[in-house]
TrEMBL record:
Keywords: Copper, Glycoprotein, Lignin degradation, Metal-binding, Oxidoreductase, Signal. Residues 1-23 form the signal peptide. It is an enzyme of class 1 (oxidoreductase). This is laccase. It comes from Sporothrix curviconia. InterPro entries: Cu-oxidase-like_N (IPR011707), Cu-oxidase_2nd (IPR001117), Cu-oxidase_C (IPR011706), Cu-oxidase_fam (IPR045087), Cu_oxidase_CS (IPR033138), Cu_oxidase_Cu_BS (IPR002355), Cupredoxin (IPR008972). It holds the Pfam family Cu-oxidase_2.
Length: 609
């Protein structure tokens, strides 16, 4: 197996098709075949660091990939259902689902596989686009799935194929980037097998935890324009929980094997709720965050911001029993709350009774939304921070504008509320060598090649709300941040506290309330990369910026086939949209709108102009 894989690494194109046939035997759902069989033989319970010849946990995955020649095919069908009975037994008026469930199917692959995912839009009137959160998309910006930026939305009745390489490994998720549609259920998980920084016996798989609302996301987007975030109605653990209203539904129930070490892949797929997780009587050891393997770090509880992922190991070394896995909320810090006061899942030791856990565990009640910044990536990055001078071109201020007549809460970054144009995505300008982006695309052009560029993101000095800031297309270094407990505005002298010596590297970081965070990424990936707050209501409210990275290189590198696919999809959307605009349909006709009548907020809810 090892030599076969290394041979593949050298001549993938020769062996690729034979391997594909092997990977997806006829009769099996394509892509759903046993990924475990494909893992390398040297990756064993006692040696998870090993992967295959020439590739292990220390391999710099930005520098080389164990190309397998395997393409994993998946089809994801997005549908809309009314009066749908959810996993907690409560009926929701309207949901949008991937293959009929929340969450949708798990996308699985091995490090170095190619993914080919067909997304079918069977929604009634919404467009859609699917974003593969945290996937690097090196030189594949058009596969990033951000409508209005990297593509036009896929109109109802149409589909598109996304193809990209699994350049990194670990746990992540996918979600719609059309308005706040993912809050209606268009979400699923991604698991890419690879080496790990700690041995473990059993991979329990993905464990997404999400806030869950009985109202539609479309309603909540409207609601949060003028109101504070509502508490979630429930919290789902891997798609399950009991209803806090009626007790219907069932707890998620994970079986642990006594004496064994388990890997759990925690993924926060919330739209608004941040959680602190703890497993009664146990510690958890972090081995990876946001697709970046880290040196093992043991914690008794773990804050996970929206969009963040932590792979942890859990030793089943306690008494054979049942234990609560609790999600608790941060107190008084506005990072989420739920109608369900004690969201929890059961962790059941094999051999224990079928009863509910009895011990309540120790309450963990942090008072800030602070995430960890003391993780040490296994594959190191050390950069010099001394040349950095903060100035208006690299400071991005987040502001809450309370002066707009049509909505109370308008979020801006760098002075602009993003209002993307579904009909003319940013990448269309870039491919046409145009730089006259509409101001509302909120673009920041970055021309430098293979340089580390620094950004200071400054929070509103008047509003004490944290934001989980997510960057597409890059893992960034968190080089500095204000203190969560006594945050202060950024000052030039803060640069002296920057740390470029292998700091925490990830793709979502918490921006302290009233404070700042400084990040650095290397300009090695041409294309337009969205950076936004991952709270759905805030990105819908405009809290996003587009880094247009090396536009000339991007335009030069796009293949003719990708360009054609891009324009065909835009032609289909632009043919569909104006005549099906629900805004038009809802319009009483009493008020005529001018020109292209609707514009979009964020990634993009509808706003009346
Ligand atoms: C999703 O549903 C479609 C249509 O039923 C099916 O062809 C496809 O295999 C499903 N995908 C997965 C990953 O199960
Ligand atoms: C959904 O349920 C509501 C309330 O029970 C009912 O009025 C409505 O007709 C139902 N809609 C559909 C499409 O079944
Ligand atoms: C998306 O679908 C929802 C539910 O049907 C609807 O309320 C909303 O107006 C639609 N938005 C667009 C832009 O089509
Ligand atoms: C969560 O559900 C997925 C899909 O059914 C499964 O593969 C995974 O093992 C589950 N996770 C846990 C921790 O049980
Ligand atoms: C998920 O992220 C959201 C938003 O950052 C946060 O409010 C919530 O506490 C996180 N949930 C968990 C379980 O960490
Ligand atoms: C949890 O799962 C185990 C194993 O399937 C089962 O024996 C036990 O009864 C379940 N616990 C509850 C409370 O359902
Ligand atoms: C954990 O959740 C259970 C079930 O909801 C609850 O009874 C218990 O008090 C919670 N423990 C903590 C520490 O939050
Ligand atoms: C801002 O500082 C950077 C160095 O960090 C420098 O390259 C750039 O020219 C400066 N811009 C202005 C407008 O001073
Ligand atoms: C980037 O390069 C282009 C082409 O050389 C130039 O027109 C543009 O002004 C540059 N933009 C910035 C922000 O440096
Ligand atoms: Cu936010």
């Amino acid at each position: 197996m090892r030599s076969f894989l290394s041979a593949l690494a050298i001549v993938p194109s020769l062996l690729g098709s034979a391997f594909l046939a092997h990977a997806a035997p006829s009769g099996m759902p394509r892509g759903a075949d046993a990924v475990a069989h494909r893992a390398s033989s040297c990756n064993t319970a006692s040696n998870r660091a090993c992967w295959t010849t020439g590739f292990d946990i220390n391999t710099d995955y930005d520098a080389k990939t164990p190309i397998t020649g395997v393409t994993r095919h998946y089809t994801l069908v997005v549908t809309e259902e009314t009066n749908w009975t959810g996993p907690d037994g409560e009926v929701k008026g309207l949901v949008m689902l991937v293959n009929g469930s929340i969450p949708g199917p798990v996308i699985q692959a091995d490090w170095g596989d190619q993914l080919s995912i067909t997304v079918v839009n069977n929604l009634k009137e919404n467009g859609t686009s699917m974003h593969w959160h945290g996937i690097r998309q090196l030189n594949t910006n058009l596969q990033d799935g951000v409508n209005g930026v990297t593509e036009c939305p896929i109109p109802p009745g149409h589909s598109r194929v996304y193809t990209f390489l699994a350049e990194q490994y670990g746990s992540s998720w996918y979600h719609s980037h059309f308005s706040a549609q993912y809050g209606n259920g268009v979400v699923g998980t991604i698991l890419i097998n690879g080496p790990a920084s700690l041995p473990y016996d059993i991979d329990l798989g993905v464990f997404p935890v999400s806030d869950y609302y009985y109202s539609t996301a479309d309603y909540l987007v409207e609601y949060t324009k003028n109101n504070g975030p509502p508490p979630s109605d429930n919290v789902l653990f891997n798609g399950s929980n009991i209803s806090p209203l009626t007790g219907k539904g069932k707890y998620a129930n994970v079986t642990l094997t006594p004496g064994k070490r388990h890997r759990l892949r925690i993924i926060n797929t919330s739209v608004e709720n941040h959680f602190v997780f703890s497993l009664a009587g146990h510690t958890m050891t972090i081995i990876e965050s946001d697709l970046v393997p880290v040196n093992a770090m043991t914690v008794s509880s773990l804050f996970v911001g929206v969009g963040q992922r932590y792979d942890v190991t859990i030793d089943a070394s306690q008494k054979i029993d049942n234990y609560w896995f609790n999600a608790t909320f941060v107190t008084n810090a506005q990072c989420g709350s739920s109608v369900n006061p004690f969201p929890a899942a059961i962790f059941h030791y094999a051999g224990a009774s079928g009863d509910l856990p009895t011990s309540v565990g120790t309450a963990v009640t942090p008072t800030t939304c602070e995430d960890l910044t003391n993780l040490t990536p296994v594959v190191q990055r050390t950069i010099s921070t001394s040349g950095f001078v903060a100035n208006t071109s690299n400071e991005l201020a987040v502001t809450l504008d309370l002066t707009q007549p049509d909505q109370l809460f308008t979020w801006k970054i760098d002075g602009t509320k993003m209002i993307i144009d579904w009909e003319q995505p940013v990448d269309q300008y870039v491919m046409n060598h145009q730089s006259d982006f509409p101001a509302s695309d909120n673009t920041v052009v970055v021309n430098k090649t293979d340089q580390w560029v620094f950004w200071v993101i400054e929070n509103d000095p008047t509003i004490g709300i944290s934001h989980p800031m997510h960057l597409h297309g890059h893992d960034f270094l968190v080089v500095g941040r204000a203190d969560f407990n006594s945050p202060s505005a950024f000052q030039a002298s803060d640069v002296s506290s920057f740390n470029g010596n292998n700091p925490t590297r990830r793709d979502v970081v918490m921006l302290p309330p009233l404070g700042w965070v400084a990040i650095a990424f290397k300009t090695d990936n041409p294309g337009t990369w969205l950076m936004h707050c991952h709270i759905a209501w805030h990105v819908s409210g405009g809290l996003a910026v587009n880094f247009v990275e090396r536009p000339a290189d991007f335009a030069a590198g796009v293949s003719a086939a990708d360009k054609t696919a891009f324009s065909n999809q835009c032609a289909a959307w632009n043919k569909y949209y104006p005549s099906h605009d629900p805004d038009h349909q809802d319009d009483s006709g009493l008020r005529k709108r001018n020109g292209v009548s609707s514009r979009f907020l964020g990634v993009g809810a509808i706003r009346e102009e």
